[in-house]
Amino acid sequence: MARTxxxxxxxxxxxxxxxxxxxxxxxAAETNIHTDQSSLxxxxxxxxxxxxxxxANNWSNSTFVCNWAGVTCGLVHHNRLRVESLNLSFMGLVGxxxxxxxxxxxxxxxxxRNNNFYGxxxxxxxxxxxxxxxxFGSNDLTGKIPSWLGLLSKLAKLFLQSNxxxxxxxxxxxxxxxxEIINLSENQLSGEYILTLTKSKFSxxxxxxx
Length: 210
Known about the structure:
Blueprint: H1 2-46, E1 47-49, H2 54-58, E2 71-75, E3 81-87, E4 94-95, E5 109-111, E6 116-119, E7 133-135, E8 140-141, E9 157-159, E10 166-167, E11 181-183, E12 188-189, H3 192-204, E13 208-209
Parallel strand pairs: 3-5, 4-6, 5-7, 6-8, 7-9, 9-11, 10-12, 11-13
Antiparallel strand pairs: 1-4, 2-3
Keywords: Leucine-rich repeat, Repeat, Signal
Signal peptide: 1-21
InterPro entries: DNA_repair-toleration, Leu-rich_rpt, LRR_dom_sf, LRR_N_plant-typ
């Protein structure tokens, strides 16, 4: 009798342990996707003009973030659903890039081409270690090309053309061993020596410089 009760207690404990683990996993997943959602809502708040009301009509707490326009999610670490791609290209948006986007930990592709984003690219974006593709071409971004881009070790394609970046190209970009193509044309860049050094480095690694 005592043995049977002991076995029942053990089985009950194991079942409760599994349920607790499942609840924790669900809560963690919801917290992470909620972080992504909050980050994107911060971007929505930083947009001052949305001509087609794409974000205004689509990005809200009443709809699941993975169904938002321009947002693509995927299963990542421990089968958790996270935002992997953000495509805001050709939406005619006016605004700034908020630091909150640095919380999109599993973002792989980030395109905001042909909009009117202005200001600088915040340092917090350096935390996006999974990024392979960045396209901010044809905006109104200013300041120096961020040196932290050199920290994005998986970055393969970088498009920053047709903005108002100034100063020299940071040598840290030469650390991007996965880089395949880069376009920095039509900016206000200077520093011939660094530009030549960068081009030479890219040439050695079969990287296309546009």
